[in-house]
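Thread: quick sanity check before group meeting

JM: Hey all, I'm pulling together slides for Thursday and realized we never actually wrote out the predicted structure for the chain we discussed last week. Dropping the sequence here so it's in one place. If anyone has concerns about the input, flag it before I start.
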Amino acid sequence: MLRYLALVPVTLLIGAAPADKFGADDYASDAKSLAGLIRDNYAYLDDLPGGVVPSSPQLDAERDAVRDRDSLLHYAEDMIAALADHHALTGSSFKDDWGIVPSYADIWIVKRGDAYVVDAVKDGSIAAKAGVRVGERLVKADGRPIDAAVAAFWSRLGLQPVGERAPFAARVIATGRRDRARVLTFAGPGGERTLTLDNLYDNQHDRADFVLKRSNDGKTIIRFGNSLGENTTIATFDAIMAKIPPSQPVVLDLTDVPSGGTSSVARAVMSWFITKPMPYQMHQLPSEERETGIKRQWVEYVLPRPGKYHPGPVSVRAGRWTGSMGEGIAVGFLALGKPVCGGRMAGLKGGVYDFDLPKTGLRVKFPAERIYTVAGAPREKVVLKPCMP
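JM (edit): ok, ran it. Output follows.
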């Protein structure tokens, strides 16, 4: 088991598969082990209906039919989807799977009453360029009423679209399949309009770079690309910070880090703005309590680094595409007493671990740690103050 705090694109199963060294019994055994693996390790069982791993006759039948690599992966994908958790996924996938939210999403849908409402549109994205606007309602997907599309998403698994399942499915549907365009119908003050939008898998630009610019009011703005999982980011950030005059205000823009990252990069960034060890987030490991009856909780600290300190003001901007470790940096700067804005973030739950199934090694990833602010608030529920224009 490897600790993993980034939500990253997964390996696609395209072309001919390698020779299979596992037998049908191996795949069947791993399928039967998956529910127990989730039950023992998933950190947010309490958030699921009934507080238990989702099950249904459909999922049970799918499990019992597993005999090979593809059928095991299909079943694993469905069991992970049943968690309705955007921070959970499989280590492999099929080329026609649904897109990963938020990494490959550009429209954020929430449910308000009976409506599915556009809560945010990613800046510069395909949806933004097509004119999708905050406040519009998503009413159809591929010509199907969105309520019916959401219900079908869950009925295939034998589950009901209750609680968080409904907006979860709507966000996935709005993101679309990885191998085709999306046809989405929106309703607003001007009536309904149907848009055909490419998926982000065919239109990803390289977001692993920083964009550094100076605004007219003398602030240095450091915009992070989707780079918080790259160790090279530490040296890049250090080099940028070393050139900034000591008194100059710095703005850290985390509005495009949906895939999260590592705590090493997060602590390297925060360390530039402290002079003594400071706590920045708190962790719990529910699996240890389930196994032993003893709770485990700890606070993670960021420590200063010799010769790397910026005494000038710093502030942070976040948003819906601030995910996982990006959210950790945002709440970390709050703990350091620095101004942070951006409203709601991606709300990705906890710290993700990798789990390899015992026979075939097929990998699943899901939150095994609960993460909180140092004040004890669940990180995924933090709402920041709005940013001023």
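AS: nice. The first strand starts at residue 2 and ends at 3. The two ends are 44 Å apart (CA to CA).
JM: adding both to the slides.
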